[in-house]
Amino acid sequence: DVKVTQSSRYLVKRTGEKVFLECVQDMDHENMFWYRQDPGLGLRLIYFSYDVKMKEKGDIPEGYSVSREKKERFSLILESASTNQTSMYLCASSLGDRVISYGYTFGSGTRLTVV
Amino acid sequence: QKEVEQNSGPLSVPEGAIASLNCTYSDRGSQSFFWYRQYSGKSPELIMSIYSNGDKEDGRFTAQLNKASQYVSLLIRDSQPSDSATYLCAVMLVPGKSTFGDGTTLTVKP
């Protein structure tokens, strides 16, 4: 089974802190994604990456950055955490095929609280 | 208009009934369609993918796609209490990148 592992299940950080959320997948997937999920707002795409060193902005990239130095690892960085970034953060990965689009495998999520 | 819209729910069905979950999408160029199940407090899990018009069956689940009507649905036959979850419809326009609906919460009552 494909495994997508997020480093923390729960995090509490202070306003203004720099926060790193780590995600690692073990099945050689090309595509990796960061979403946040909030009640009433659904899943919203923050950033995604189709390959090492590549990154693309999603729908809500403001206040976030990402890093993909290795194929298996995709990190989400909150440059200066704010209370409106309190959310459930979900990492996902998928095969990158030019013919078929595959669905995602999600990690178990990180519930981040910014106080 | 949202890119992907689902029945707001919640949807409640008795055990053994057929549950019908619906999803419409706005972009005619969308090519790939997915259904995910998300149990309370858990992350989404892919349960069905469909790429061409018609029906696709997998066990008790059937996905239906009608590109002309920009409509995709999920039928769950012989619903079980363990099917109680939020079901997310996802549509892929750009290869690899999905847009999700807000989800429909299904409760199956014993």
Task: Indicate the low-confidence ranges of chain A by residue numbers.
Answer: none
* Biggest chain contact: A-B, 25 and 23 residues
Give the helix tally of chain A: 0
Treating each run of at least 4 consecutive H or I residues as one helix, how many helices of chain B?
Answer: 0
Helix and strand run of chain B: EEEEEEEEEEE
Q: Proportion of β residues of chain A?
A: over 45%
Radius of gyration of chain A: 13 Å
User: What fraction of residues of chain B sit in β-strands?
Assistant: over 45%
Please give the alpha-carbon distance between the first and last residues of chain B.
Answer: 37 Å
Total DSSP E strands of chain A? 12
Mean pLDDT of chain A: 93
Q: Give a quick account of the main beta sheet of chain B: strands, pairing sense, barrel closure.
A: 6 strands, mixed
Cα radius of gyration of chain B in angstroms: 13 Å
Low-confidence stretches of chain B: none
* Shape field of chain A: globular
Written account of the structure:
The complex is a heterodimer of chains A (about 120) and B (about 110). Chain A has about 120 residues and is mostly beta strands. Chain A has strands at about 5, 10-15, 20, 25, 30-40, 40-50, 55, 65-70, 75-80, 85-95, 105, 110-115. Chain B has about 110 residues and is an all-beta fold. Chain B contains no helices and 11 strands. In chain B, the strands form 2 sheets. In chain B, strands 2, 4, 5, 9, 10 and 11 form a 6-stranded mixed beta sheet that branches. A 5-stranded antiparallel beta sheet of chain B has the order 1-3-8-7-6, with no helix packed on it. Chain B is globular, with a radius of gyration of 13 Å. Chain B starts with a strand and ends with a strand. The relative contact order of chain B is 0.35. The mean pLDDT of chain B is about 95. The interface of A and B includes residues 40, 45, 98, 101 and 105 of A.
